[in-house]
Task: structure prediction
Amino acid sequence: MAELNKQQLEEKIIQTLKTCYDPEIPVDIFELGLIYEIAIDDIANVKIKMTLTSPACPVAGSLPPEVEAKIKSIPEVNDAKIELVWSPPWDKDMMSEVAKVELGFM
Result:
């Protein structure tokens, strides 16, 4: 079995995360700063800590499972788990420059 290249896998995971959107905001969840941590173990199990823009977010029930399914669909990923966290609370300062420009915060 080829050695796991965690850096390459993390890049694929980030590219996949950039296909996931909060339906109310026209910017992907990675650029929004909703992804707090991507952890990859030695056998390609992925654990992602993410948050939402607010606990009352209408996609709180559907977005994390969608993200998990997309990550699991990456051929190199053995398994994926999404952990929804609320600390630290998300705010607009966590967005990338790209997201801030896209949403008119710059």
User: Anything to note?
Assistant: DSSP finds three helices and three strands in the chain. The mean pLDDT is 93. The longest helix spans residues 6-17. The two ends are 47 Å apart (CA to CA).
